[in-house]
Amino acid sequence: MASSGDSSAEEELIIDYSRLVRICARPYFLVGGDSEDLIQEGLLGLLSAIRHYDPAKDVKFKTYAEFCIRRRLISAIKSATRFKHNPLNDYVSLESPELDESNTQGMSFLRDPEEFVIARERVNEITDCLYGSLSRFESKVLGLYLEGMSYEEMAVNVNKTPKSVDNAVQRIRKKLAQLLKNGDYQ
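Below the sequence we write its predicted structure tokens.
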């Protein structure tokens, strides 16, 4: 009756097999959700099983329903862990970044184009001043570091050991911290 579209028969089957849904959902975990979300997904799987079950296929309904429920649960878990929706889930402002009030801590978001130009000029001043205080080797390491290279890749590029590259990065960090602390970039 349920496969022919009888909604009261569908409801009866959902009530009868809701325990199976809970049993199937129990071992799973949904990132960013709770057990009720999994149960809802399982119920959708059960509803799909009810609507698509074919008794001529020589498979018990319970077996088919369990398969549909588990498939729906796994699909929900996979889609929750995909990185496809990260741009929507991890909010990123479309505003341009700016140094905060102390010009040293974190980034805030600009509301005014004039603030953006001033912040960009400040960053350029700091960068120019920093490069002026670095040795040739440190400047090369900083450039490679800003390109995203690993210490090993930088070491090969400058023909030095990874330890000497690490030492250069530490010196660069100290010089930058001192520069920002003293405000010598102005």
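Residues 25 and 36 are 9 Å apart (CA to CA).
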